[in-house]
């Protein structure tokens, strides 16, 4: 909700009811939008060193401290520095959650539902965006901000009841407690979950004989290749323009020339995101990661390019595009569907599948850091590119980035991991082939 807050708030900051003493400039608005993403860079820096020390549960609970502080600062803001600080606090909280929640889900889920359950993370992110989009246009600045703050107050009481992950408990030597948590999660008896507990003990003994270090990421050719793949796809996730569209949705719908009310169009986009998020868990384990990546990145290239063409005809050549006024919103709706199905969730699923347990936390942190870095650069300068060279140029740059993702996805550089064991994935990444058995003569 803090990420979607800017879309309905920017028009209010330019109105007479703004909490600020004057209307913010274009650059100041760009800083308001992008500082959340810059704050997101702090998330992995907090979670990676603490994850194996204090546990996933405490990090998830602790993320509410900067989150609530952000809502408080936004609520009392009367100047830009206070608003900037609020955005950084929200970004820190969001970065902590993005780096920890997928790891938490992966460690409590059964193998057969891990991919689908991980995809639900995106669903509830989109519910937060929809809340901001739906409440903002019909509320004041303070009403929207107070709603977000009140909802965040429920965060600690509810997260207090979530258990620590069985893996972390075994890692800390709390075997009985891990067994009790598994009994509750699986709804099974102690004897039935004992096999899983034994497996976790063997895993910890094998993978954590020595403390993990950054050097583990380039210890094998497969790890280096996996890191390159995941970092590239995580950056592509941002370079496809998702944060730009989500943060500046109302403004973009006006700029590209759609004739629908910007607030109505934004709500429609939020509904599409949520509905599509229900579909993602059903297809991600059926269609495969590679297929989803190349089809969705190709689709994003086409529809972002079409928006650019429409904006060029409308704003530069001044053609009468009244009969095609539905096209920008339609293209953005299809963009959201495709992003939610492939380019959005697949990078994080691959992080969970490609790395050994001892390096997974480090790899997730690095991929998350690079994702936020790419997002900050793009959200900070997108509006200036649009202002200087036309909104159509900005959309064409997004289309080119997605086109590069399409080329990468159809190339042999991206392996298909669907239905493969960890050992089989490692064989592919390390270019290992199994020796054929000798034929008896």
Number of helices: 22
Number of strands: 0
Q: Round the mean pLDDT to the nearest integer and report it.
A: 85
Question: Looking at the structure, what is the overall shape?
Answer: globular
N- and C-termini, Cα separation: 69 Å
Largest sheet report = none
Estimate the strand proportion. Answer: under 5%
What structural category do the secondary elements indicate? mainly alpha
Task: Sketch the topology as an H/E string, one letter per element.
Answer: HHHHHHHHHHHHHHHHHHHHHH
If you compute it from the alpha carbons, what radius of gyration comes out, rounded to the nearest whole angstrom? 23 Å
Helical percentage: over 70%
Residue runs with pLDDT of under 50 for 5 or more positions: none
Task: Walk me through the structure.
With 441 residues, the chain is an all-alpha fold. Helix content is 76%, strand content 0%. The termini are far apart. This is Major facilitator superfamily (MFS) profile domain-containing protein. It is a multi-pass membrane protein. Residues 1-417 form the Major facilitator superfamily (MFS) profile domain.
Topology (elements, then pairings):
Layout: H1 6-13, H2 26-40, H3 42-54, H4 56-62, H5 64-76, H6 80-108, H7 114-135, H8 141-153, H9 155-159, H10 166-171, H11 175-186, H12 190-207, H13 221-239, H14 242-247, H15 249-255, H16 262-287, H17 289-316, H18 327-343, H19 346-354, H20 357-389, H21 391-410, H22 422-429
Helix pairs in contact: 2-6, 2-20, 3-4, 3-6, 3-20, 4-6, 5-6, 5-8, 6-7, 6-20, 7-16, 11-12, 13-19, 13-20, 13-22, 15-16, 16-18, 17-18, 17-21, 19-20, 20-21
Protein name: Major facilitator superfamily (MFS) profile domain-containing protein
GO molecular function: transmembrane transporter activity
Keywords: Cell membrane, Glycoprotein, Membrane, Transmembrane, Transmembrane helix
